[in-house]
Amino acid sequence: xxxxxxxxxxxxxxxxxxxxxxxxxxxxxxxxxxxxxxxxxxxxxxxxxxxxxxxxxxxxxxxxxxxxxxxxxxxxxxxxxxxxxxxxxxxxxxxxxxxxxxxxxxxxxxxxxxxxxxxxxxxxxxxxxxxxxxxxxxxxxxxxxxxxxxxxxxxxxxxxxxxxxxxxxxxxxxxxxxxxxxxxxxxxxxxxxxxxxxxxxxxxxxxxxxxx
Length: 212
Description:
alpha/beta, 8 helices
């Protein structure tokens, strides 16, 4: 039985070393790391990524697939849910670094299966909504720059990256982590986590204003 960590590295904030370090700090013992570099999760299915395809060939019953978050497993809601369910049917256990979620086929109880599938759907929908919001914010910034529009006062530059913001957002959505735990996991101060939690829309708007 093998534990594989899969990473998608698409921005300067999401270095491979950083993601692997986070996984190991969370207690995962990783046997192999597979990573795709310079790939957009919004545009490319997991099965279409060069290294992502290897997961379908390598993973066997009893293996564990570790990812930072479910958005690494597809480009949208349908892709993510299809991928998770495919691996679960193959007997592979999927675990996330953020919130420590576990998806597997161990249960045969119909009620527990329904709860598991509902959770998969919720997490996948949340991941797609976040990806689309990020894409729209970036698009708006690019269009404004092309049109030569003067930039309004942007306020203080956020002390958190897009990746850190998404981690806070995902951990809060999971409802299992407290403020101090989220701060430790994201390398942010507790006060920054609280500011994001108390006004998430403004926290994301600040990133968009700075093109982050």
